[in-house]
Amino acid sequence: MTHKTKWLVLAPTGLLVVGAGACLINWAGNLKEKGEPTAKWVGAGTVALVVFNAGLSLFGHGVSESVLYQLKEKPADQ
Question: Transmembrane segments in this chain: where (predicted)?
Answer without folding.
Answer: 7-29, 41-64
